[in-house]
Amino acid sequence: MGVAFSSLWSSLFGSKELKICILGLDNAGKTTLMYKMTLGSVVSTAPTVGSNTEQFEYKNLKFMLWDVGGQTSLRTSWTSYLASTDAVIFVLDSNDRERVNLARDELHRIGQDEQVLKAPILVWANKQDIKGAMTPAEISESLALTAFRERTWQIFGCSALTGKGLTEGLDWLAHTLGAKARKGWAVGKGSERGGERRLHSSKKNPSQGLPKKPCSRTNTSDTTGALGSMSEPVDAAPHESRPEQPEVEATISTLLAQNRRTATAFTVTKHSNDAAKNWDKFYKNHADKFFKDRHWTSREFGSAVASTSNKPEDDRGEETELVSADVAGQGSAVLLEVGCGVGNMLYPLLEANEALRVHCCDFSQRAVDMVRSHPRYDAARVNAFVFDLTSSQPSLASFLRTEPYNAWPAPTTVSLIFVLSAIPPHLHLEVLKSLADLLAANPGGGHILFRDYAYGDLSQVRYHTKKDAAWAEPSLLSDEPGQNWYRRGDNTFNYFFQPHELDALAGKLGLQGEAHLLRRTAVNRKSEVNMQRRFVQAKWFVPPRT
Ligand SMILES: Nc1nc2c(ncn2[C@@H]2O[C@H](COP(=O)(O)OP(=O)(O)OP(=O)(O)O)[C@@H](O)[C@H]2O)c(=O)[nH]1
Ligand SMILES: [Mg+2]
After folding, report:
1. Who's near 38: CB < 8 A, 6+ residues apart?
2. Is 30 annotated as a binding residue?
3. Pocket lining: 28 vs ligand 1, CB cutoff 6 Å
4. pLDDT tens profile 391-407
5. Which CATH superfamily is domain 3-235 in?
6. Which ligand is nearest to the CA of 69?
7. Residue 324's closest CA among 255, 431, 413?
8. ipTM confidence score
């Protein structure tokens, strides 16, 4: 297509964004396709819970792409995305022979929706790179595409992995929408949306080709509201916790119900015994990176993933603020930071609170060594020691009484941030009790500040949807109902809490305060596009022992 032709598109559409809904069964490759189009690369995906949106320019046309999750429980919400849709892209896994009839039913259901009766349908028979894939002709027949007599539709084979077939499909879409616009508006009939489109010419940047950089992106679990209005794309508002949505909850439960083989008792015992060793290895592997550029971990800590900016992965800004807010009012406060790792929260805290002194511990010797060898380490303000929270001898209190730190006032705040999830669940009560006992000895008691992974977090969903989840050594460590306990690839533990579990633990220990669930959506451009994050947070008051 030449420059003159591109200008024609511009003159037809001006700067109007065309809304395209990308639909299809789960696992069809919709998200992979969308990011291949917009970023030009293959990203690692997890099932979409809700939708992703991307602005995209192709041959001088501006598209707003809506990639909507295809899990069973989400399909009923598809129609709520269809308002003012200019075209539908329906994506199919060409190897999913078993579900081709289901795909046909879903496509026809959507095709008959009056909101899209005039919208052209592009069917992408995806995953053609896999040997034995059904051909577009076979799929066309199975989908009964010829039944769409009055409709404009076309099917193309493609592969989101290689990018083959994408240009052909997009060219067809651009032509079709262009022809529609000429027919509808150039002859003065007005558009099907009451003439809201204006004809104006723009000769700027007659650029062509695939891919173009996206102008913006959002990822949201918002499956209702604002969905039809393209002038107001949903804002991810990453730091806001989102309200509960039944479709999203149902989808998460469905995903977590699959691939539920559990590890053997032997494996669980082995990893429990090796816990300190495994964490030591973790810090060994990430040590260099930490000191070079602070991108020391690929772990998904709360603040890093909740941010759309390019913050370093280890930035614990939000957690640091949480703790700062508690200790700030205490004058020369003393904090006990349990599970300090290599000091990612410690050093920003010390900087922000000049009078603060911190006892901090981790059960990885290597992590503690790194805290001590940090350029800003100051022994007058930091007592860093190795401690295993799950063993009672020697006691935690004895480390706080070592010289010269026995001269400090007793800590009145304990932070326990992304720590309990690394400990086997049968020990959670005991660990929390030992911390509560410490604070209860103070005349005014104290606070435990808690944050950790919550049930339904993206990282939990991934354990059940990874390609190899069905045959690899299971990550799931417990089949007890309500126990969401896993092992990561490096054999460290990962537990996902429900607020009521924590409330029950706190209740047993007489702690005051409730656990809250934080539902977040965010985009991490580097690693994942599909971030449904869930954290649980509590500020417990430990009353003094009477
Ligand atoms: N071989 C091959 N695999 C693909 C292709 N496109 C996607 N995949 C893989 O298919 C799986 C599912 O892809 P997604 O893009 O997450 O599927 P989806 O349609 O968005 O799924 P939901 O979000 O659950 O609706 C991923 O493992 C992709 O890597 C392709 O063209 N070829
Ligand atoms: Mg998806």
Report:
1. 54, 56, 65, 211, 212, 213, 214, 217
2. yes
3. yes
4. 888 899 999 999 999 99
5. P-loop containing nucleotide triphosphate hydrolases (3.40.50.300)
6. 1
7. 413
8. 0.99
